[in-house]
Amino acid sequence: MCIFERIKLIAIISMKIEYQLNPSLSVHDLIRILDTSTLGLRRPLSDMKAMESMLAHANYYIAAYENGELVGLARAMTDFVYTTYLADLAVDEKYQHKGIGKELIRLLKINIPRAKLILLAAPAAEGYYPKIGMQNHPHCYFINDVGEING
């Protein structure tokens, strides 16, 4: 085994990720994990009232921690029976490609087994979801403003 393989092996062994259901999160925790995961590029991080509302109105969270530091977060809204909308799957860039996102999704489904899990993929993550077994659904529609409704 070369020195680089040994260093990589030690890094994998030393990473102990702990997952917590519905942890106590502050708006600053949410902002930081969105920012370090690159989701912050598409979220209103500088609008504190919007961020507080995003935190308050999601009803299910699963967090990933390493040594007490938040390194991943699944933020969802669910009725527990029919639909779970995964609004954010955020993993700190330093921790990506280590299975944390996949585990957050797995735990979400284990804890909410009846509801179909739905998400809108960030452009950079479109290739990720099929790799972990999620199916693409071509029928998604949205509006940003009531003025966009015709008629």
In short:
This protein is of the alpha+beta class and 151 residues long. The chain is 32% helix and 23% strand. It has a single domain (17-148), classed as Aminopeptidase.
Describe this structure in words.
There is one protein chain. By secondary structure, the chain is an alpha+beta fold. The chain has a single domain (17-148), classed as 3-Layer(aba) Sandwich (Aminopeptidase), CATH 3.40.630.30. Helices cover 32% and strands 23% of the residues. It has 5 helices and 5 strands, in the order αβααβββαβα. The chain has helices at 3-14, 27-37, 48-57, 100-111, 128-131; strands at 17-21, 60-66, 69-78, 83-91, 116-118. It has a 5-stranded mixed beta sheet with strand order 1-2-3-4-5. Strand 3 and strand 4 (83-91) form a beta hairpin. The chain is globular, with a radius of gyration of 17 Å. The termini are far apart.
Element layout with pairings:
Layout: H1 3-14, E1 17-21, H2 27-37, H3 48-57, E2 60-66, E3 69-78, E4 83-91, H4 100-111, E5 116-118, H5 128-131
Parallel strand pairs: 4-5
Antiparallel strand pairs: 1-2, 2-3, 3-4
